[in-house]
Write a structure and sequence with these properties.
With 196 residues, this protein is an all-alpha fold. The protein has helices at 2-6, 11-28, 31-47, 52-72, 74-88, 99-114, 125-128, 132-135, 147-181, 189-195.
């Protein structure tokens, strides 16, 4: 978004790049990426006053991605929409996380409790979950399906604290930049807060 707002010569590049990114994300079938990207675009559409061309470009890119996905890759379209709906509204209950994800989270958290300081090791989750101690939770997959839980499980408290410290470092510098440049009242402040 920096290129779009502050570099006029890159606006067309930004729009083309963003539209291609939307297509690739939808065709990947990764539901979390689709959800996060959609939330960013919905926020931009709601929080920006002008930039009608940008808003219309995003809306059409999302609509055409869904149409192409439905026509060309119905199995991915079905996974994104129908399967997600079935996971959230199953057994006459509403689940924030699917039953499968809940099992994975329980397995991951138990691994963390068993190895709290240094974790089980990066990339080891898929092998460690097959251990007899974790089979009982029935949540063995390639990864925990949650970035923060994965860091906590694989690197323990020390790795997780490092991640949090890095995050707060960038957060602190971001707010310093905002206050230093006094852009709290600018048109683009809402966009910058979304990106944070």
């Amino acid at each position: 978004l920096y290129l779009y707002f502050f570099q006029d010569r890159y606006k067309l590049f930004f729009i083309v790049f963003t539209i291609l990114t939307i297509f690739f994300i939808f065709f990947s079938g990764e539901r979390t990426a689709i959800f996060l990207y959609s939330m960013i675009f919905i926020s931009i559409i709601i929080l920006t006053n002008k930039m009608y061309f940008l808003k219309i470009s995003f809306i059409f890119a999302i609509l055409f991605s869904n149409l192409f996905l439905f026509l060309l890759r119905p199995n991915i379209f079905n996974r994104i929409y129908n399967y997600t709906y079935q996971q959230i509204f199953s057994d006459n209950n509403i689940f924030l996380f699917s039953i499968e994800h809940t099992k994975i989270y329980k397995t991951s958290f138990q691994m963390f409790l068993d190895n709290p300081f240094f974790g089980i090791g990066p990339g080891v989750y898929r092998y460690a979950c097959q251990h007899i101690d974790y089979i009982q939770y029935d949540g063995c997959t390639t990864h925990p399906h949650n970035f923060y839980l994965q860091i906590l499980t694989e690197t323990g408290i020390f790795g997780f604290l490092l991640l949090i410290l890095i995050y707060f470092y960038f957060l602190k510098n971001f707010f310093k930049l905002i206050l230093k440049k006094q852009i709290l009242n600018s048109q683009n402040f809402n966009i910058k807060m979304i990106l944070l």
